Amino acid sequence: MTTSRAEAGFQRALADFKSPTLNLLHGRYAPFVVAMLNLVFTADRPTVAIADAHTEIGDAAEELRAAGYDEETERTLPAGNGRDICRYWVRVGWLVQQIEDGNEVYRLSAQAVGALEIAGRAGGGRSRISGSRVRTLLDAVEHLTNSAEPDEEQRRAALLAERAAIDELLRQAETQGFEPIEDDQLLEEAENVLHLSRELPADFARVAESINQMQRAVVAELRQDVRPAGDVLREYLHRGQHVMEATPEGRAFAGALRLIGDPEQIDQLTHQLHGLLAQPFTRHLDRQQRADLNAIAKRVEQGVNEVLAAQRGASHIITAQVRTHDPARDREVDELLRNVMSGLHAWMRVSGPADKVEPLRRFPTADVGNLRQSLSDPQPPGTPAPLRLAVNEAQFDDGDARAWGGPDYPALEEYVAGLGEGYDLAEAFEGAAALTRRPVDLLGLLEITHRHGMSEGERISVVETVRPDGTKRRFAFGSVTGNGAGNAAPQTGQSATEQQHEEPQHD
Predict the structure, then answer these.
(1) Each residue's pLDDT tens digit, 452-484
(2) Of 27-41, 131-145, 319-333, 358-372, which one has max mean pLDDT?
(3) pLDDT at 502
(4) In terms of DSSP bridges, do strands 472-482 and 497-503 run parallel, antiparallel, or are they unpaired?
(5) Which residues lie below 8 Å from residue 492, measured CB to CB, with a gap of 6+?
(6) Phi, psi dihedral angles at 333 (to 5 degrees)
């Protein structure tokens, strides 16, 4: 039976709509997906930590549900939390998980970038054909024709004709000047530049994904390779070192890298874009167009870095796999993994939503082989010698420790006993020996006075204390009169309050 043209075209369309790009735009929740991906992933934020993405998308979904955008009659939002939504997007190919600086992150897949570009192009901007787009096409065809021309004389003649045309334009400019270009034409040129730039992120992502796919294929081949180790090492190390040349996308990128890989070229592009935004015609661009125009250089630089990072990662993984290549072990590990996956698939077919995986209660019996008939005695040959007490051997200088320690209670008790009744605590402290005039000694003196009995006055007493290092601090407190060491009726005391400044050391 011969397939008709209509049937063949329809089958091709069905296959196209199964791709992640068109599936995203054709899906039931397409507006939500496009909005969230544009919201979370920007030119300044090409990758997002997994936990942050789950939180942001989950919060946005809850906000939209609360606003009534998910009615029962017309469900426009996916079910589940942010984690569930992101995992589904990974499964269908809209998000890619990867490790970046030791952290798990999400980034947009090439298909998702392409879908967002299509949605953005359809939602805004001019849809009419423009002279700039036609000229871009004609220039591209002319460049392709000249590049494909095998006759060197023909190529030389084309270059001479191009130079003659430029010389003629210069002569006209010298005699007549340059004609001003209308704003509408400049806007068409700007929109054409934006149109071309929107396709670049998807192209870069596609190159990076092709490299990663090639790396996975190489590792899979390596694990099944049973050739001699020398042959394996030579071949796969070469493939790891030339990973960029292993895919058509990588080889095409290598050509583009010669144009945009130079940092000076990126700087020049940035300078040109900033100059464009300063021109009067750009006031007719909306805010998003101006932002997109300003971000072109950054998008190009990010795309180049993404591809180069994928290249380095693939080379590192392939090289590491080659160095640790063990065919027997790799086949055993692969067999175990296949058994685990097949067991999971079989369990999922017969399990319900609430079923749990039965945990492993015991390990299989291990074949230990031959055991030693004699074992060394685990006991030590003898008891260790007892520790020798050396009380009198250690010498400690407690002078500094005592100076920075607590109040000298014996000296203070003796000092208070000689004061008699009715002494003023501030005057008593000022008259104490220099070694007992530390801040802690003031607190100790107050404690002893409180224990022997004291009375409080209304005036404020101020005393100056001296630290062991010679620095001085002043304290202010309500006046206290001690009743003497002979009376032991305790009363409510008052703690000193440190005055918040420190005096310089005096000689």
Answers:
(1) 888 888 888 888 988 888 888 888 888 888 876
(2) 27-41
(3) 40
(4) antiparallel
(5) none
(6) -65, -45
C-alpha torsion sign, points 286, 290, 295, 296: positive
Cα 31 from Cα 77, distance rounded (Å)? 9
CB-side neighbour CA atoms (13 Å) of 413 = 4
- SS3 label, residue 7: helix
Q: 334-371, pLDDT tens digit by residue?
A: 777 778 778 777 777 777 666 776 665 555 555 555 65
Domain residue spans in the chain?
Answer: 17-123, 199-329, 406-503
Q: Taking the mean position of all CA atoms in its chain, how far away is CA 400?
A: 51
Across the beta sheet with 47-49, the strand order is: 47-49, 103-108, 95-100
Which pLDDT score, from 0 to 100, does residue 357 have? 66
Write down the pTM of the prediction. Answer: 0.47
Q: How far is CA 161 from CA 158, 175, 244, in A?
A: 5, 21, 37
CA angle 355-361-363, nearest 5°?
A: 130
Q: Which fold has domain 17-123?
A: Arc Repressor Mutant, subunit A (1.10.10)
Answer for the pair 136, 81: CB distance below 8 angstroms, yes or no.
no
Pairwise CA distance, residues 14 & 7, whole Å? 10
From the list 209, 203, 12, 14, the residue with the least C-alpha distance to 93 is 209
Other Cβ atoms within 10 Å of 183 Cβ, number:
14
The pLDDT mean for the chain works out to 76
